[in-house]
Structure formats: C-alpha cells, structure tokens
Predict the structure.
Amino acid sequence: MLSSVGLPVANISCYLFASLSGLKELREHLLAFCKARELKGTILLSTEGVNFFIAGPRVSVDELVEELRRVPGLESLAPKYSYNEKQPFNRMLVRIKKEIIAFGVEGIEPARYTSPKLKPAELKRWLDEGRPVVLLDTRNDYEVKLGTFKNATVIGVDHFREFPEAVQRLPGALKKQPVVSFCTGGIRCEKAAPFLEKEGFEQVWQLDGGILKYFEEVGGDHWEGECFVFDQRVGVDPALRETESDQCYACQAPLTAEEQQDPRFQQGVSCPYCYKTTVEKQRESLEQRQQALRRVAVPLPGSVPYDNYRPISVPERCDGLAVLDTLVTLFPHVARSEWLMFFQAERMVNDDQQPIAPDRVMRAGERLYQKMPGLTEPDVNADIRLLHEDEAVIVLEKPAPLPMHACGRFNRNTLQYLMHLAYAPQKPRACHRLDANTSGLVLLARTRHVARLVQAQFAEGTVEKIYVARVQGHPTWEECCCELPIGSEASDLGSRDVDEISGDAARTEFKVLCRDPDGTARIEARPLTGRTNQIRVHLWQLGHPIVGDPAYLLGGLLGDTQTLRVDAQPMCLHATQLSFTHPRQQERLTFTSAAPF
C-alpha cells in the first residue's frame, strides 16, 4: 500500500458486480453516511452492483468501506487506494443507474461470468519476455490521449456504448491471437472481455484491477505517458501521483502541461482540440439555425388547422360606441347582419378570448378579436436559406412564394412566423420587404434597436439593392431610368398603379443583360426609392411586365391573383445583391444570390 505521509486525502475507487436490491433505501443511507464524514465523490448503485470513486480523510474512507461490506453481496469489496494533497471532488453523489457501467448489450452479466483475469505481475512478465499478445485498450479516445501501453491496440470509441460496434472493425486475425483487454480500473473489461468471447475471440484475458492496479503493483514498465482518471486530478503517473495535466471544460479533452501553454487554451472556454475561430463559430451557429428552420417548416405551421384571432383596435372616433356600431363604422363594406352572425356564433371575443355582446360600449384603445376557427392557410415555399448570422443581423435567401408578414390569407405561413419559431425566444425583424412572389436576399435585425439603425440606412438610400428580372418582350433600350410615381392606394388584391397626380415619387434604373430567343429579356433593376411593387409597376408601365407576375399583365391589364400557388409558374424577380453598413462593426458588407431563372 502506498504511503500517505503528508498527503491528507485518501482516494479510493472500486466496483463489484453483485445482485443488489432495496436501492432507494440504500441510496439515502449511503448519502447521509458519507456527508456526515465529509466524504465526496460518486457512488453508482444498480441491481447489477456498485461502482464508486470517493475521497476524504483516511479514517472516514475506511468506515465507508466497512459499511459497504455489510451490504449483502458486497462483502468482498477490495478498493484501490491513492493519496493526494487536496480533495479532488466537489460534492457527494449517490445515484441509481440501470448499469454501473453503461454498455447496453443484453446477456453480458459480470456477476455470473467474467473472462479470466490476468494479474499485473503476470502481464509484466509476459511483456518482459516479449510474448506475443494483443493489448486492447477499451477506453475512450480522450483517455488514451494521455497515455497507454506501448504498442497497444486502441479500440477507437468516444463512449463505451460504442465498443460492440468498434469490435466489428477489428481485424479478423485477432480472434486467433491472445488478447488482454485493459481499462482504468478494470470495470469496463468485466463486460468488454466476455463480449469479445461472445464475438468469437478465442484467447481473452482482462487485466485484473486495470491500469491503476498495474501501476500500484509493478509501476510503469511498458507504459507510455500518464493515466486519465475521472476526478479533478485528471491524470496520474505510474507512481499514482497527480500530474500537471488539466482537462478542457468545453470538450473534456485531457491536456498536457505543454498543451495548456497553447494560445488556444482558455480556462473554462476552449483548448487546441475544440477551439473555433469566430468564422467557424458563426458557420456552426448558422447550420444549427438552418436545421431549426427545416424542423419548424415540417409541417407548415399554417397548414395545420388552428384558431386565429384577428385583432381589431378601437380608434378615438369610435370611443363610446357599441361594439356592433364600431365594427360597422370601421368596416362599412361588411353588412350589419353579417357582423351579428359573428356575435351569434361567439366569434367576437375579448382579450381573454371570451365572447362579448354586440351592445357592449367600447373605449378608444381597447382591442377585440374576430375568431376564425379551424383556419388553414395555402402552402408556401419554406426553403429559406441562411447566408449570414452574427450578434446583430441575419441575411437570408427568401424563396417564393412566401409572404414576409401576416397578410390576407397568411398568418403563420410567413417568413416572420417561421423565423420567430426557429430563433425563439428572439424575434428577428425584417429591415425591408420583398413581395411574396419575389425571391432573393433579405436583411433582418436581431433586436429592435439594430432594426432602427439598419432601417435608417434604407430610408437614407445608402443601402444598395440590385434585382434581376426576366421580362416579356425585348426592350428597345439598353438602359432606362423610370421615374413614374406610384400610387399609395392599393387595389382589393393589393396591387398598385401609376398615379402621376398624388402618387409617391419613385425611381428605378434598368439595364438589359440579354435578350433571349424565347421572346423574353433578362433585366437588371436598381430601385433608388422603396415603393410597394416599384420594380413590377415600372416594368409593367414600360410595356415589359415580369414573366410569371400574376398582378401586372401585358397590355396594361391587372390580374386577379395576389400570391401565387406553390405549384404555379414562379414570378421571375430576384433580389440578387444587397450592400449595407454593418450597424455594429461599421463595415460595408455585400451579399449576392444567383437568380433561379
């Protein structure tokens, strides 16, 4: 036994496979017993046995061992001792588990059968003699990193549950050779070695007591490096003394003293094995968000029947009116009798979703809701592609057809709703708009404050937007600037028209990119103002409406459709380039997206 002179903390580790019962009562007893003696560590209890790592004063440790030996089945406990200056554990835990060492293979029961055990001294003699033997390291890769036997065969797993699959990758020739499996304290080999026999390995032994027992009895002969241990010591040398190795908080990789000097090692943050640059972190975060978007879009949230509550705010001019009179005033195109039908069906409700009477007096600022039960929305294209994400902004490619905000028949099948689901609890805000039928680049802000900063750039005209459109006919001009004002009043379907008297000033620069044999042309469009449907209206007025546009047709005609069906011919308008100044970094950023036509 090692000397404990000058080392006040005794460490013990031990396991024993045995048939145990009354685990809940035993757990409570052992937890109280250990806490009363200032012991810390972990005890795992299972119907298949016990496994523990405990540290504390030697007297207290010995008392715990004697107490455990009083449990039927645990009489033969033989823990391994080591000593160090400080307590390696933070707290005392006693847990009940299905297995004391997770393996997940039925029929492997160490309490009934284990492979032959090879004493450390015998293994040393074999190695001293140069006897041909396969030393199979059954530990996880991050443990092996600190050290292993010379010329050992590493099983190559991140978790012991992967061991059965890893065995299938071993060369078939090993089944005829002598194999000695080993691990830290021996417990994993109690299951690994019988599994090897089950898989046809003919000569299998397990190192009795594992690496730690080998160190204790014969030292470090034939060993290279340290041994990883599952406590705050991280590593011990063949004399079972704590080494200078540390462990990365982020990825749990053990780190040598030299690796701790690496600039990528930041205590509690990262190490050379898990360090990521800012670009790598952003790419990883972007992929996680992309996966979240895919999940929330299947099924489309608006395509599953739901109850929608359309809010109606009471303006100052309706203060003091009854609910019914308020509705008739606000929506004169809807008959009073139709509103009464909504009340009779209890589809006019208050903030608590409770029905309200038509004669209730309303006050300015109050809100009521029109309930629309079992609502389903038309399908949309939800193939949103994220291009960039940082702490302030998001840039994405919007597919079409996909409305950006709640409107008309769409409430949940919108870009905004899907982004809110994927980024919850955050609610990204679009800094500008694209028509539902327009695809391409969209800029969103992560916060309301950032949204105000970016939207100011749009208002000041410092954001550069370039679109590509495919239009009907071949323009006679190569470049053109259209300045026809666009009306502020929308039709019933939401389309706009040119209004040279009271319309809003609008300006778009166009350039022909190519004229194709099918009678269409590819046009570059640069909107210098931001009016609703501006590019579409200007091209329509120039006699070259966009291919697939359901609203603005050849011959100056207006269509009867607003948002296209998913299976309809797409509208050929795509936001292909977007340049803006980053609101935090003050760096000019440019993003591009290839048009799908």
Remarks:
- The two ends are 79 Å apart (CA to CA).
- The chain has four domains: 9-96, 117-261, 305-375, 385-592.
- Residues 123 and 129 are 10 Å apart (CA to CA).
